Amino acid sequence: MTDAPAPDLALQLYTVREALKADPDAALARLAQIGYRNVELFDMVGFGRPLAGALRRTGLRAVSAHQSLVGQDVEAVCAAAAEFGVSLVIDPWVDPDRWTTADAIGGVADDLVAAARVATAHGITIGYHNHWFELEQRIEGRSGLEVLADRLAPEVVLEVDTYWAAVGGEDPAALVARLGARVVALHLKDGPISRDTRAQVPVGQGSMRVPEIVAAAPSALRVIEADDSELDRFDLLAQSREYLVSEGLA
User: Which of 79, 132, 139, 183 is most buried, judged by most C-beta within 10 A?
Assistant: First the structure.
């Protein structure tokens, strides 16, 4: 009997957004030098074909993408996904005002399901990525994100940002375990568990209990991200990858 292959490890390109916009080839080449092979896109519609070409030139593969879906032209999103060869598209943000009641959250679920109906015809899976406010919002004692999960059709998945879940007051590992198989990807980041994005540090060097979180979703895609940092973000990505690999978490 052989061990199952480890899930893919990727990085969210938003971490190095300034360098990516200034010189895509140089930024991607540096990530490849660090040892990354997979990336998660952001604003793939805006970047378009030039970034797809830069990825091919540097040998990096886009395995997922963040792109707004609710209220957007889903056909255009699917066309961009096809350009990058991406089959998992995650809506990264729905306005906090839409998380205040169960009915409002149900409306978010309906919008995501409607997007999924369009995307499924193109072979694309749709998901949602949380920040802190979906966890802070409580509906009859449960977080808004879990209320959303209850209302989603099975084909809509979740990418749990474990750091923002902790900022929102949840135990990320317990949350991921409760959400179960719907969680197909994890955002891994670290820091003092606060909204101060500049305080974020390499994965494994902050207050997050990373091994417990990874163990709660052993088959989920692992995506390293920093929203910001006082540190050099390429160095942060290098140290994060080294930690996950050395600890057998990737």
Answer: 183
Residue boundaries of the structural domains of the chain: 9-246
The answer to whether the CB of 224 falls within 8 A of the CB of 12 is: yes
> In this structure, what are the phi and psi dihedrals at residue 146, rounded to the nearest 5 degrees?
-70, -35
Separation of alpha carbons 78 and 218, rounded Å: 28
Angle between helices 74-84 and 102-120 (to 10 degrees): 50
Q: What is the DSSP letter of 154?
A: T
Report yes or no: 51 and 24 within 8 Å, Cβ to Cβ.
yes
| Superfamily of domain covering 9-246 | Divalent-metal-dependent TIM barrel enzymes (3.20.20.150)
The helix/strand/coil state of 135 is helix
Reading the block at residue 246, the tokens are 């050395």
114 close to 134: Cβ distance less than 8 angstroms: no
CA distance 238 to 49: 27
- Write down the pTM of the prediction: 0.96
pLDDT digit string, tens, across residues 137-181? 999 999 999 999 999 999 999 999 999 999 999 999 999 999 999
CB 42 within 8 A of CB 16: no
If you compute the radius of gyration of the chain from its CA atoms, what whole number of angstroms results? 17
End-to-end CA distance of the chain: 20
